[in-house]
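Folding Query — how this chain folds
Tokens — whole-number codes for backbone shape
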Amino acid sequence: MDERIITVPNALSFVRLLLVPVFLWLVLGPEKDGLALLVLMISGITDYLDGKLARSLNQASKIGAILDPVADRCYILAVVIGLGFRDIIPWWLAVILPLRDVFLFGLVPFLRTRGYSSLPVHFLGKAATASLLYAFPLLLLGDSTGTVADLANVFGWAFTIWGVALYWWGGVLYAFQVRRLLVTTPRVVRA
């Protein structure tokens, strides 16, 4: 990974971050669900493209390794807040998803004692995030009437249940990775 900041993948991640407040405003302000869905679709497409382009263009960067998961977490937080305030999802769900990230953030000081700032993303975490990023637009689409809304609601809740389970399972696996690292890696002494 290099130190470059201005790359195509980083620009895509930055656009995703800029669209987070736009999404929240669309959902909570004028309740323009169609446009909010469009923003989520753009977010999903750019999430896929930034990683693919980083690899294919050889533009993987340290800032990109931070921006991408931060954008994912911001979207998940924004969506659960928006859907919670709209009573599309229950508040317990809106709390347990960000709680996992708070739990993992609490592990960072332990990682730093071993010279790490984060752990590599594993497939389970990516699968959980992908499942949730499918779930939320479907739940938003399901907040209507008709056959399409009914189907979107069913599939949205299926992805939500699966995504939450994977999200927390991934969090527990990260915690075990941190524990293993603490046991097997010597403490870094800072000057």
User: Anything to note?
Assistant: The helical segments are 8-28, 33-56, 62-85, 91-105, 108-112, 123-141, 147-184. The first helix runs from residue 8 to 28. The radius of gyration is 18 Å. The mean pLDDT is 91.
